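Run log, item B.
One chain of 255 residues. Sequence copied directly from the ordering sheet:
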Amino acid sequence: MQKLTANGTQIAFERSGSGTPIVLMHGFPLDHSMWDGLLPQLQDADVIAPDLRGFGESAVVDGAYSIEDMADDVIGLLDALKIEKAALVGHSMGGYIALAAARKYAGRIASLGLVATQALADAPERKAGRYATAEQVGAQGSVVVADAMAPKLSANPEHIARLRELILRQPPAGVMGALSAMAERPDSTGILPTLGFPVVIVHGLADLLIPPDRSQEMKTSIPRATLLEIPNAGHMPMWDAPVEVGKALKDGLLS
């Protein structure tokens, strides 16, 4: 992997292909490799897949930080690569980061992909649950979220062991930092009507973590949005239905 300093943080990333720049932002608590199954369909693009701060080979940052800070990292990476404008695709937590980037850096975004994510902030009980999980991770390590989340991420039971292994690779401090950042993220529904670029929304109808109606609500509010709903796909539609997801992103964001 390549590594650059962006927004004062060392960010590791994979880069492949050539053409329109597209940044793939992974979900919680994973890393850039979750996108590997889509790369064959995005060969005509300049694909940049970072490990977000605290995950994979990117730096673990001390102290509290926000989803906006993580968006600053992504835009800082584009600055370091001398890319003025790119398509941004975010899965779950990556979608929160994509929406934060759209709020602060709309002029840097050519198009937006929102995969298995939502614009709403956490309800109070969900916020409290994230902080409780962060405390458990501090005491017991990333196995806490690996055991809890791996069975819920994909609709295909054959993926569970690989997802659990991927989660266990993540630094506990990064997992804790992301949990706090997600808990404190603002509601993004207000910016949806202002998004003037193409937006592709993808959601698995068997998603156990974020209800599909959250994507339906976003589709209603965004002027140039398309929505792909995938039956029998869970919270990882890029694993459960990679051909469909890759085609939707390519056709909607890169054409």
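Observations after the first pass:
- Residues 2-121+186-253 form a domain with the Rossmann fold fold (CATH 3.40.50.1820).
- The chain has nine helices and eight strands.
Flagged for discussion on Thursday.
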